[in-house]
Structures are given as C-alpha cells and as structure tokens.
Write a structure and sequence with these properties.
Elements lengths: L2 H6 E2 L24 E2 L6 H25 L4 H12 L2 H7 L5 H20 L6 H18 L3 H20 L6 H33 L12 H5 L5 H5 L10 E7 L8 E8 L14 E6 L7 E5 L20 E6 L6 E7 L7 E5 L13 E5 L16 E5 L5 E8 L8 E6 L11 E8 L5 H8 L13 H14 L13 H5 L5 E5 L6 E4 L3 H26 L7 H22 L15 H22 L3 H30 L6 H6 L14
Antiparallel strand pairs: 1-2, 3-6, 3-14, 4-5, 5-9, 5-13, 6-7, 7-10, 8-9, 9-13, 10-11, 12-13, 15-16
Helix pairs in contact: 2-3, 2-4, 2-5, 3-16, 4-17, 5-6, 5-7, 6-7, 6-8, 7-8, 7-15, 14-16, 15-16
Length: 663
C-alpha cells in the first residue's frame, strides 16, 4: 500500500476521533469499510503532527538519559529500543494523540532536570518555564498528562524543601526560589490550560452532533441546535407551563421524561405484578411525548394565567402528560427493573383500591433563596413525591421489549445526597394557552416563543467540560479490542487498526515483545537493587558511592515513577480501556532498561570477564529486539501483505486477534 493511499483514507479503526466540541473526548464508532476523507479535511496536517511528535521523542529520550547522568552509550541504547518499538511507531502514524502526549511528557521531565542541574546557567529559568509549559500542553492533549505532572510536582516539592534547608541562601533568595517555582509549575500551567479552553470555546461556538452529553444550559449557549429551539423561551416556569424535563445526568445517555400510550404488563417475566398503568420512561430523543404540563393541584386550569404565577422552591405541583392527559404518579409498587424502588406511572383510574398519588414537591437544588423561582434551563430540580418522599430518578436500566428499550424511571425512597440521576431541568418551555386536549396537542407541536436570552459564563462552561471529560463513559459495553491493565504488562492484547479490503495487509497495535519482556525484567531488577541498597545504606554499608546512589534514586523516580504513575491509576478507572493507554508508561519503562544495564555493568559486575560476557548478552538482546521488530513490521506498516500461514506464524500469543482473510 503506497503512502498516498495511506494518507487519504480513513482506516477501519476500532475507534476514530470525532470533533465532539470537547477537548480530550473521543467518540467510539465502528466502521465496516474504508471511507475516503473529503478534500476539505487536512489529512496531511493531522497526520504529520503525531508523526513529528513521535520522531522528536527519540532525541528527547537520548537527552533525558544523559541528563540523568548516564553515558552517551546508554542514551543511544534507549534511542535504539524506542526506534524499534512497533507499538510506538504504529501510534505515531495515525491521527492519534499518544505520541503527542509522550512528546510533551518527555520534554517536561527533561526541562525540569536541566533546570535542577543548571545552578548558575543563564538559561536555568528558561528550562523551568519550558517544563511548566510542557506540562500544560501534556494535560491539554489528554488528562493522562496529569499523572506525570503530579510526579514532577512531587519531585519539585522535594527539591524545594532542600532549598529551604540550604543555609547558604538568604531568606530573600529562598522566598524568590519558592515563588518562581510555584509560578512556573503551578500558576503558569493553570493559566495556559484555561487559555486553551478559552480559545476552544471562543472558536467552537456552534452546536455539533454530540452536544447532547452537555447540560441544557451549555447547549442553549451554543449557536444553532438547542439554542435555535429554545431561543426566547420564558425564563420563569409557571403554573400552566408546558415543559420538557431533561435529566441532569448523562449516564447512560442524556434523556427526557417521557410517556406514551402503553401500559406496564400485568405480570413481568419473573412473576412479579405491576400496576398495569401507563408507562413513564426516559427517552433519549426529542419527541412530542416528552411534553408535560405543570398544574396547580388546587385549580383545574391548564393554561398560564395573566400575569403568570411562577413555581417556586417548595411548591406542590402535578405533572400532566401533554399528549395522553395522564398524571405523573408513583406508589408502593415495585419498579419493573429496580424492585427496591417504586414504580413511576401515568395514573389510570381502573376503579380499584389504588388511589392517585400524583403530588410532587419542587426542590430547587442550586437555589440561592428559599423562595427561588424555578428557572428554565438554569434550575436543577429534584421532584419529591409528597405521599412517600420518594425522589423521581433515572435508574439507568433499560426496559425490555414491552418498554421499547427505553430507560427506566423510578421513585427512590432511599435517595441521599447529590445524585445527578435524581436532578431534572426544564429544557424546552412555553406558556400553555389551550385548555382543550385537541387544541393543546396542536400547541405542543408548535415551536416555542417569547424572547429571553441566557448565556453561561466561561468558567461555568469550562467546569462543566472538565466534569464531563472525567465522568462520561464512551461505551457502556465492552469493545472488541478493550482490555484490562493486567493484560498490558505481558501484551496479551492487541488492536486491529486497518485491514486491506482484498488482501491480508493490515496494521495492528502490537508491541515489540522482546522490548516489553526486557523492560519488565529491568523494573524487577531495579526494585531488587533498590531494596537491597536501601537497608544496607541505613546500616552504613555503602556498596556504591553517594553520587551513584543519588543518580540511581533520581533515575528511579523518573523512569520507575513515570511508569507507575502512568499505569497504576488505570486499575481505579471504570472507563473502557485499550492497549494504547499503556504507551506513556511503556516509554518510561523502556528508559529504565539502559539505566539498569549501566548500573549493573559498572557497580555490580567487577571482573573484566563478567563485563565481557554481559556485553555479549546485551548484544544478543539488541539483535533479538531487531529480529522481533523486523518480523512484526508487516503489521506495523501494513506492507507487504502476508499469506494466512505467515500471519498465523506471527500470532505469538493465543490472545492476539490477528485478522486472517478466508479465501
């Protein structure tokens, strides 16, 4: 496959990047075939950025190993290992973010080390500022950059503590040192990160296809989309208002309180009974059946009076479904999918001993006063059932076929604290004018009206974006190529990025298995050395000079620490994970290899014969690294196309999913 074809095609990734209007967010989408990009997409520019970043990682790695105090030979060895790491090559050849992230992480670490060691250099403060800028850029690329940033902050805190204890410095110089470090490593990255999003939100002010994950207020602040629908809506919700109620939570998907002319089954599949009343669900699409009328329980009127009587915090209301005229109701009947919660229904009087329980108290969670008016879009409201104190809540469970796979809404009697699934906001709103059912149905299908403008501040948008990036899950089900962190250590997983439509040519995210093996071994050896030296030095047994010990500790903080902070946090994450999440940790782990080798060669192996034999082993390992790289290169570059037998021979692990085309 030639380079021109490679640059003009959208590959059959298990995922592709979409512009969701949110930095750091990706949308996972399956594609069944290669799709040509249109001519207005700057494919070359989008591919050259990660390619250049991946290339620049090599000299940065060289300089970093040298800055740690190791020889140029060790630094060259680190470069060779990174150059022949198939997974890093693959990731830098596509429009993906990991190579850019790794570039900024290495630059941040290198710059800080140069600052730390350049005591009297005129460029010292330049390196400190460069480190802060690189940290901000790394976090701006992906939140994963935060892990290395925290590692650097910890290292800087230790060094600053030593500065405070340096009696050769005056009090004024110590204060200046602390202040400059704080400004460069904390204030500057924060200002830059805010600046990234200020530019982002200034340039991307229009609505896009994935805005639904954002709050109604955020969507309404964008040009087009919801802003076009809601522009000029009444701000104050009043008795007689016609509204759509959207859940504040985006899990599993944004949805609206909904009802339709279908009842709960008399009995569920597990034998439990229901009220057989009208279904109330949460529907993830805009629909006329999402409209509800806010009614005053003490009056029969379904229209807004003149002047309007606003609904306030603490008021008791009824919610009448606009299209079916059923009142929102909950009672002591178990919900279909969540039997520990109450069923929510549209009340039907079957003339049985099941009276209506359709009174709800309005609890405005983000109120500023106890009699605050319910605001369109802006107010987050908890609806509390008067009879049972249950809270109207999205359970997140999907109903079976009889519920059209819509999401379950329940009454939660054990609701505690702030839960977004129990918060609702009015998204679309009009003042009702029609008392009769048929006229009202026509009115509900008309666009909203009036002229009130709402805008979110930059900080409100910024904070919401950060929260969504931290909490929104891209997939609720496991992806074919998703994996667990335990599988990354031994590379028991892979990702298929591309398959030629007529041959076995393909591109796979598979690493150099020899590299991964010796990197794992180097981590173990480093830990053993550290745990051996540490107690012996405590007993005043100095196996190595003090300078060598400090050098080994610093290398461990950077390399072993860089691996740990970029790997271990994934065990705490509930998001769908892939092998490429491990690449930043892998980079630091590979840098550990020459550190361990040089230390063993100089400080552990004493005799010339031992060193000569060790050199032969190292040469053999490097040859094995090259052989592994060369054998896997058809899966790295997508050429040449291999036969099915040749591909089967490359399946070195049973868990690898290498694609074989049947002929």
């Amino acid at each position: 496959m030639n380079s021109k074809a490679l640059s003009r095609q959208r590959f059959n990734f298990p995922f592709v990047l979409h512009n969701t209007g949110i930095s750091n967010c990706i949308t996972l989408t399956d594609f069944g075939s290669i799709v040509e990009y249109t001519s207005n997409v700057p494919v070359w520019s989008l591919r050259v950025i990660p390619a250049l970043a991946g290339s620049f990682c090599i000299p940065l790695a060289y300089l970093l190993v040298v800055e740690l105090g190791y020889s140029h030979s060790s630094a060259l060895g680190a470069c060779v290992l990174l150059l022949m790491e198939n997974s890093l090559i693959v990731q830098s050849r596509f429009m993906l973010l990991e190579s850019v992230l790794i570039f900024f992480l290495l630059l941040a670490v290198l710059s800080y080390l140069r600052f730390h060691k350049a005591h009297n250099s005129s460029f010292r403060w330049f390196w400190l500022v460069t480190s802060g800028v690189s940290c901000a850029c790394g976090i701006g690329v992906k939140y994963m950059g935060m892990f290395t940033y925290f590692l650097l902050l910890g290292l800087a805190a230790v060094h600053t503590w030593h500065v405070i204890g340096d009696r050769t410095l005056s009090h004024g110089k110590v204060v200046v040192q602390i202040l400059v470090r704080f400004l460069a490593l904390v204030v500057l990255p924060v200002i830059m990160y805010l600046g990234f999003f200020y530019i982002h939100l200034t340039l991307l002010y229009r609505s896009g296809p994935h805005d639904q994950m954002m709050s109604s207020a955020f969507q309404a602040s964008l040009e087009g989309g919801l802003a076009r629908i809601t522009q000029g809506q009444p701000l104050d919700v009043a008795f007689g208002s016609q509204v759509t109620l959207r859940t504040v939570s985006s899990k599993p998907v944004p949805c609206w309180l909904h009802s339709h002319k279908a009842n709960y089954p008399v009995r569920y599949e597990n034998g439990r009974g229901s009220s057989h009343q009208q279904q109330v669900t949460c529907y993830p699409f805009k629909d006329v059946n999402n409209w509800w009328i806010i009614k005053d329980p003490g009056r029969h009127s379904l229209v807004v009076s003149s002047p309007p009587r606003p609904v306030r915090h603490g008021d008791i209301i009824q919610l009448l479904h606009g299209m079916t005229s059923r009142y929102l109701n909950t009672h002591d009947v178990a919900a279909p999918m969540s039997p520990h919660s109450q069923e929510v229904s549209g009340y039907i009087d079957f003339n049985v001993s099941m009276p209506a329980q359709n009174l709800w108290r309005v609890d405005i969670v983000n109120r500023e006063s106890d009699r605050e008016i319910w605001k369109t879009i802006l107010s987050e409201v908890r609806l509390v059932h008067v009879n049972t104190s249950a809270v109207l809540k999205l359970s997140g469970a999907s109903l079976p076929e009889w519920g059209f796979k819509q999401l379950e809404v329940v009454g939660d009697k054990i609701y505690k604290g702030y839960q977004q699934s129990g918060m609702w906001n009015v998204e679309e709103h009009r003042y009702g004018r029609s008392q009769e059912q048929k006229e009202r149905e026509l009115e509900l299908k008309l666009p909203t009206h009036s002229d009130i403008k709402r805008n979110l501040t930059f900080m409100a948008k910024f904070l919401e974006l950060q929260w969504k990036m931290l909490t929104v899950k891209n997939e609720e089900s496991e992806h074919k190529y998703s994996s667990s962190p335990l599988e990354w250590i031994t590379m028991d997983t892979n990702i298929a990025y591309w398959l030629h439509p007529s041959s076995n040519a393909q591109i796979q995210l598979i690493g150099n298995i020899v590299n991964w093996t010796i990197a794992n071994l180097s981590l173990v050896v480093y830990c053993l050395m550290f745990l051996t030296y540490l107690p012996r030095r405590r007993r005043k047994v100095e196996d190595i000079p003090q300078d060598s010990w400090e050098q080994l500790v610093l290398a461990g903080v950077i390399c072993f620490g860089g691996w740990a902070v970029n790997y271990l946090p994934f065990f705490l994450m509930e998001k769908t994970l892939f092998l490429y999440h491990y690449l930043p940790a892998l980079t630091f782990k590979i840098l550990q290899i020459p550190v361990v080798i040089e230390h063993l060669y100089i400080h552990v192996l004493r005799s010339p014969a031992q060193r000569k034999a060790f050199g032969g082993v190292i040469l053999g390992v490097l040859c094995s690294v090259y052989v592994s790289y060369h054998n896997l290169s058809p899966l790295t570059y997508g050429q040449p196309a291999l036969s099915s037998d040749e591909l089967a021979a490359l399946r070195w692990r049973e868990s690898w999913d290498i694609l074989l085309r049947k002929r």
